[in-house]
Amino acid sequence: xxxxxxxxxxxxxxxxxxxxxxxxxxxxxxxxxxxxxxxxxxxxxxxxxxxxxxxxxxxxxxxxxxxxxxxxxxxxxxxxxxxxxxxxxxxxxxxxxxxxxxxxxxxxxxxxxxxxxxxxxxxxxxxxxxxxxxxxxxxxxxxxxxxxxxxxxxxxxxxxxxxxxxxxxxxxxxxxxxxxxxxxxxxxxxxxxxxxxxxxxxx
Length: 203
Hints:
Number of helices: 9
Order of helices and strands: HHHHHEEHHHH
Distance between the termini: 52 Å
Radius of gyration: 25 Å
Strand order of the largest sheet: 1-2
Structural class: mainly alpha
């Protein structure tokens, strides 16, 4: 369509269209909404919205780290806090979680092949989950202690987990952007559904 087309007078009888009732509208070319659609609208839509919230938080933490040009070398309590928040927020959608009925939900990990297309992205994703599980959300011994070190002494060494380097944060932010785009597409599939409200667990 060009500017010339827009200037042409429409041959559609818009007054008649405005007078049409719902019953008069031909919807024969629109497939009916089956039970699978409504199951998806009720069970999937609220979950992807929660995942999107977590990833939007991670996106904000990554942007703040990059905008402030913080270095992961040396002591920086503020960077430590943002680094921890970034890793935990990113990993939430990929961890075990439960729905409103306290039933275990599938992890977003099942969609990795659709979102992360580069090898470095897949490796970074795995590293984030490992950091979360061993160093940030938990504190496994192997993340802090050296094998065969005698920790009964007053003076001993502990491993130091450095914050993410700038290039790692940049990569992670690109990955987060991809995940959010994927979730936006999932949400758009049922955006006009009447089931945007999560079901009442008490009923």
